Amino acid sequence: MTYLKKFASSSKELTHVQTLAVCAMMLALRVILGIFTNFTLAFMPFVKIGFSFIPIVITAYLYGPVCAAIVSGAGDVLSIILANPTAFSMNPALTACYVWEGIIYGVVLYQSEFKLKDIIIAKAAVLLLCSLPLTTLILSGMMNIPYFTLLLYRAAVLIPFGVIEVLITRLIKPLLNRIKAIKT
């Protein structure tokens, strides 16, 4: 299936009440995980790791890039509003990076067989297109830290954690197969 057809099919998913209900639950889970499971390392406060990617991956696999982008972007906004609206406040550029992450996961994982290769490609694309270059650029400007210094620190943490994310995503495959069987 071409990428444009994935977007069209994902958009059509939004016409189903069941899809809206599941996306709302994934959004709620994204907000909860965004608030309670994200943490920063004491020696690197500009690197945030957590488990809020799980509902985005689930949404991307089940309903595609449009739904995953909505859950990812809205989840970021709601997490900021509910958790700590004064820390860095809302940054639309960072939210756009989260939306792109949802799109990338959706394009790669939607209507795929969810093989390990697909998961690795999705995570590598998110790291190489969003998390490392774009988010680092935005944080560099916000924190007034040289880009390449910040990039090295973030890469040292995010690449190994990316491997852990791939393993966690692979572990939820049986759950996703059960959900997909119910969906159809």
Automatic annotation (TrEMBL):
Key word Iron present: no
TM region(s), chain numbering: 19-41, 53-73, 93-112, 124-145, 151-172
Keyword Transmembrane helix: yes
InterPro entries: ECF_S_folate_fam, ECF_trnsprt_substrate-spec
Any Pfam family hit: ECF_trnsprt
Record keywords, A-Z: Membrane, Transmembrane, Transmembrane helix
GO molecular function, one term: transmembrane transporter activity
NCBIfam families xref list: ECF_S_folT_fam
Record's protein name: Folate family ECF transporter S component
